[in-house]
Design brief:
This protein is mostly beta strands.
């Protein structure tokens, strides 16, 4: 699954580059570093035990590296629209829990609200899409079925575009995922809400 995610990221970048060459758009690629965040989780089951909810900010603050690729096309002087992908390298978001990799696919809108000022390179950006999720253990135990689901992804960012193509931004991103284990009619379901504040560095290819 990880190889598939990375391959998809490469395909998106190459396809976006070709499309950008024809339509005068741009392709942005780069990486992000999680500076902090929080993880909330809920564990429910088919047994008589009550549901359990909690949070684990310590592990989320350990952060992690993410890769991203986006295609943007200008529709107005100060507005660009497009789509993108991220790949969050494997990380543990709950202590002693499974390690997750996330792969959100999203639409994005970027606005340069100060285009008429001396700091026209400042931009605001919003992402909205669907988050794919997969854990590190393929099969927990013989006879136990595992079902993984993603959920809504959204992100907000403020950034700066340097004249030579470098892009930096601070972002807030939210990811939802679910893992359910079942055997002989019994099941245990774990739902996660993962939120991070990140610092991102990328490069803009304007073709």
């Amino acid at each position: 699954m990880k190889k598939l995610a990375l391959a998809a990221l490469a395909v998106v970048f190459m396809a976006g580059a070709v499309f950008a060459a024809d339509e005068k758009g741009e392709v942005n690629v780069g990486l992000g570093l999680a500076l902090g965040g929080s993880a909330k989780y809920k564990i429910s089951n088919s047994f008589s035990n009550p549901d359990f909810e909690g949070s684990d900010s310590k592990n989320a603050k350990l952060g992690g590296i993410s890769l991203f690729a986006e295609y943007l096309y200008p529709v107005l002087e100060i507005v660009k629209v497009g789509g993108g992908f991220q790949y969050l390298l494997e990380r543990e978001i709950v202590k002693d829990g499974p390690k997750f990799s996330y792969f959100p696919i999203y639409l994005t809108v970027q606005v340069n609200p100060l285009s008429g000022a001396d700091i026209k390179e400042v931009f605001l950006k919003g992402n909205l899409g669907y988050n794919l999720s997969f854990t590190d253990n393929a099969d927990p135990f013989p006879g136990v079925n595992k079902d993984e689901k993603g959920g809504i992804y959204y992100g907000l960012a403020v950034g700066y575009e340097f004249p030579f193509g470098l892009i930096t931004s601070l972002s807030y991103d939210s990811y939802v995922s679910e893992t359910k284990y079942s055997e002989s009619g019994d099941w245990v379901k774990m739902e996660y809400n993962y939120h991070i504040i990140g610092f991102n560095v990328g490069y803009k290819f304007k073709l």
